Model the fold of this input.
Amino acid sequence: MDLEALAESVVKQVIKLGASDCDVVATDAEAITAEIEKSSMKQASAISDPGVGIRVFVKGCSGFSYCTGHDSKSVRRAAELAVSQARSGTPDGDFKGLPEASKPARVAGLYEPKLAKLGHDDIVSMAIAVSDQAGADRRITSVNAGVSIALGEVALANSNGFVGSQKLSALEVFAESVAKADDDMFSGVDGSWSRRYDAKMLDSVAETAREHAILGLRKTGIKTGDYPVVLDPMAAGFIFATALGGGANGESVQRKRSYLAGKLGQRIGSDIFSVRDDPTIAWANGSFAFDGEGVPARKKKVIEKGILKSYLHDSYSAGKDSIKSTGNSSRGGSIWTYRRPPSISSTNLVIERGDASLQEMIKDVAEGVYLRITYDYPNLATGEFSGLMMESYEIKKGELGPSIRQASIGIGLVELFTAIDLVGKESKDAYGVRTPAIRISKAKIAGSG
Done:
């Protein structure tokens, strides 16, 4: 199936039906997943998911519809539904039009042919290997693990003459090891994301999960107070993905739903804190040649030496501010979906590296916390973060100590950014953020010790 030709033909259909503007995404994607739960195979699945998503505008009002598959009758019906929705809505004067046709950027490392050669048995074997390695210690009582690959070709066309396609691949690996000694239990978690296959990636995830599960069996409490905190890349990635990816969302800012509203050009962080949004990184899961509206990939500064330099925009939010799109229209994840209209998202957020090793970040701390895992999200409206420290460790006299139980962290996001006093020199990709370890001089820790 020629997806570019299909997308172009649907654009023509939609315009004939009375739309003033439209864009169409046509995809052909497949995914294979294997999941292990409590050291036993839970499920293995293979999904093929071709389809077409159609977004149309009539007097600025949008309509959206999609169909699975590429047959002409289904596509025609979806086009009619999208136009009908747009006609029935309220005109929107803030819509300034879709992006003009541009040549896609040249971005390496979007598609890994080796992943396309892997079959169902290969993915199952990989998941079993991760599970076996993550459980390779007598103290590990159970393991949860998963491996998934996704492959897809996506084509986009719009009524301004843009047409382009790109092949995309993705690999995700996850492991959780549960260790037990006497009455104590602790789980260690790790994950990795990439557009290419690397056997070392599987080994690293399994070994890290196992090692942290065992490390956490030594436990302690902590008294409530203010402490220096070293954020592991896993914790920093989880927090910053929302704090910056969501906080700098142009639509949220315009609606006054972000703590970063009105702060453009202002200092919001330490002068050693710089962040860019970069969809041009080879093999990173957020990279692409063009965004979900056809805007060529380009890197842009979000924070430079603590100063907020840019919000993230698609064509609609950019039009409201009379600026150009920053190329942050997303079709959902590392492999695009046709099932929902595009929305604003960061691509690959990159925290600029410093020159400190993890050991150097810890050795100056007389009493503090090393936070590795939290699953709580910042409040973007208020700019506050309060999270349970799912995996954290005491720092005492410059050395990493036992795991901390039943404790949480609380800090304002701008306060967090401003309190950054050391940035690590080795980065990891986690939750769409490429980040080193980061040390903040002070945060409120609520403990039970």
Summary: The first strand starts at residue 21 and ends at 37. The chain has a mean pLDDT of 96.
